[in-house]
Amino acid sequence: MADTARAVVRHLIMLLCFWLPAQRRKKLERWLRGREEFKKLERSDWVLMSWGKSGRTWLRVMLSRAYQLKGGLDARELLDFDNLKKLDPQLPAVFFTHNNYLRDYTGNMESKAHFKGKRIVLQVRDPRDVAVSQFFQWKFRMRPNKKFINDYPPHGADIGVWEFVLDQDAGLPRIIDYFNGWARAIPELQDVLVVRYEDMRTDPGAVLGSILEFTGTE
């Protein structure tokens, strides 16, 4: 309920701030979204970290089924942060994030200090595949405001997949920088399990099992 209330407040604030210059609106919205995410981070039992289009939805469905079976829950109950924990306290609250808006709220643009003390599953995928998949997400499914606040090419921009993949703010350079940032942070955070999308395709059961063991919910 509190999460919903914060989202409603964010929408109201943004409606009332329509008169602000575009860049100030962007900065404000990212900060508000980051605040919402930080509240979830504080209450989470573990964190699933990924870049967009890295197979997170597939992994969410697999986790949902494992938790449904563990808790004897309806198969239609898909994991959404703490919804399954509310039905069965032995199940975890899982915070799904890209560490995108969180940085704007915490001010930790490079540091991952706000994740200290949290168990993290870092899901990675070949950056080339991520970039191409992200292009189709941007072109056909991403909402115009999401493009704006995340520095993607503007809605309706006439660019092809090659231009998108090479774009500094949306393509391979940004994705590789993201993964390298996490590679540098792992020794500092310590409690991190790296899972590869490619391994999920080869043996999804083994990957799921390793996650359940790592997070203590096997």
Features:
alpha/beta; 11 helices; 218 residues; four-stranded parallel sheet; Rossmann fold
Brief write-up:
The protein has a single domain (2-215), classed as Rossmann fold (3-Layer(aba) Sandwich), CATH 3.40.50.
Please explain how this structure is put together.
With 218 residues, this protein is an alpha/beta fold. The chain has one domain (2-215): Rossmann fold (3-Layer(aba) Sandwich). 58% of the residues lie in helices and 9% in strands. The chain is built from 11 helices and 4 strands; from the N terminus they run H-H-E-H-H-E-H-E-H-H-H-H-E-H-H. The chain has helices spanning 2-16, 22-43, 56-71, 83-87, 101-106, 127-140, 144-149, 161-166, 172-189, 197-202, 204-215; strands spanning 46-50, 94-97, 120-124, 192-196. Strands 2-1-3-4 form a 4-stranded parallel beta sheet, with helices on both faces. Helix 1 runs antiparallel to helix 2 (22-43). The model has no long low-confidence stretch (mean pLDDT 94).
Helix content class: 55-70%
Put simply, the count of helices is: 11
Distance between the termini: 29 Å
Any idea what the CATH architecture is? 3-Layer(aba) Sandwich
SSE ordering: HHEHHEHEHHHHEHH
> What characterizes the major β-sheet?
4 strands, parallel
Low-confidence stretches: none
User: Strands of the biggest beta sheet: in what spatial order?
Assistant: 2-1-3-4
Instruction: Provide the CATH topology.
Output: Rossmann fold
Q: Which structural class should the secondary elements be placed in?
A: alpha/beta
Shape: globular
Mean pLDDT metric: 94
Residues in β-strands, percent: 5-15%
Q: Please compute the radius of gyration using only Cα atoms.
A: 18 Å
Number of domains: 1
CATH class: Alpha Beta
- Number of β-strand runs: 4
